[in-house]
Structure formats: structure tokens, C-alpha cells
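User: I'm preparing a small set of examples for a lab meeting where we compare how different chains pack in three dimensions. I only have the primary sequence for this one, and I'd like the structure in C-alpha cell form so I can line it up with the others. Please keep the answer compact; I'll paste it straight into my notes.
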Amino acid sequence: MANTYKLLNATTISSPSYSVTISSIPQTYTDLLVGFSLRSDYGSAHHEGQFTFNSVSTGYAQVFLVGANGSTNSYIQSGQPAATWSLAINGDGSTANTFSNGEIYFPNYSSTSVAKSWSTNAVTENNASNAAQFMVGGLNTSTAAISSLTFYAWQSFINFVAGSTFYIYGIKNS
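Assistant: Understood. Below is the C-alpha cell output for the 174-residue chain.
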């Protein structure tokens, strides 16, 4: 990565977990990049995941494009309790030991004067015809600097499996 990227946190899940929270995110950068590689114990080939920041549970709005199983769809959501479709997650129904991959980009995460926006590009991996790609643009009206992120495996009965990872990078403007 460019020398303006600084690894702030690397989290690897060691046992099944429905959610992962990364807190105490430093405010010394202009942007954040979250890279992830995920798999769940859910029986489908793939599914979406979600996140919240700073425990904010209202006001998430998103536009997303989804390509899955040979078809494409677009959706608009507003007033949601979390940012959905922002994590593409391989499930137990996908090729064994494969993990999805993606990134979430947060510009101006440390600003306290602008609403928080993000963009996501994520794909599932599968050696069959059942795979997906998610592209999401989102906004939340909160102007608080992002100091924590919580990632969820969609429904409370689904868990991220051991080996799933989250990497958070701070990005400087210079």
C-alpha cells in the first residue's frame, strides 16, 4: 500500500462470533479503509452483512447494486438501523474454506462537521455459479467522528467463523 496508509487494527476471529467491534479508532487521519475477508456458518452460498459506527442505530441510507447468480438488481434504502449489504459473506453453502473479500471506504471519517458517507466493493468466492458482488454507496446524517465500527453477520443466528479478518487503515491526505 502507499506510504500514506497506516494499519490501525488487524482483527482475526478465533471463534464463531455474530459481531465484531473495533473501537478506539484514532482521529489522526482523514480517511479510513476497512479490508475484510469473511465466511459464516450460515447454510447458503452467500449473504450480506452489515455494520454500524459509534453505536448509531438510526438513519442509514444506501444505494446498492447487487450481481448474484447471473442477475443484477439495484436497491435504495433509507432510515435503516444499520448499513446493510455492505459486507459480502461466504456461507457454508459455498466452496469449502473460501472467504469473501471486500473494502469499505470512509472519507472524512474524523470530521465533526459533515455527515458520514461510505462506499463498498465486495465479492463472494465460489467454485460454482452461485456467487455475488455488492457495490454500495451510503450516508448517515451523524456528524460525529467515527471512533468505533461494529460488523454484524446479518442475523443473530449467524456467526462469522474463525479465520475471518478485518483490517482498518488510516489514510492521510498527504
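A couple of notes for your slides: The chain has one domain: 5-171. DSSP finds no helices and twelve strands in the chain.

User: Perfect, thanks.
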